[in-house]
Amino acid sequence: MKVFLDTNVIIDYFDSQREHYFPATILFDLAQRGKLELVVCAQSFITAFYVLKKYYTKEVLYKSMRFLYKLCGVSPVDASIIEHALALESVDFEDTVQYLSSAIANADVIITRDKQGFNEFPCPHYTAEQFLDSFFQNVP
Length: 140
Fold this sequence. Notes:
The chain is built from 7 helices and 5 strands.
């Protein structure tokens, strides 16, 4: 299953002080075990680096971003996605860009903490907790 991670889930994973850290770590663990294929938007690297630089050294951040790059597929954000997102004039521009990037990557589901941001799009989207509940219920 191809799982697209919204930027907030990536930040949760790299910041153990955040409330949603543990569900994010389970997602990453499942990916490392080959149970899930994770995809992140190219823009998420920039945003996560920016947010996390308040808490971590440059060396730690680059190591973390290299880990993310090796583990996850990276979906594009290019001029056509920006143009399409602008044309849609959705409530949340950033979530629109994330959605369009996930569609290009053919993701099966989006994992986010901001479920409302994806309500206007025809894609399954869940919190990490909701997804994991469903995932483990379906494991034989």
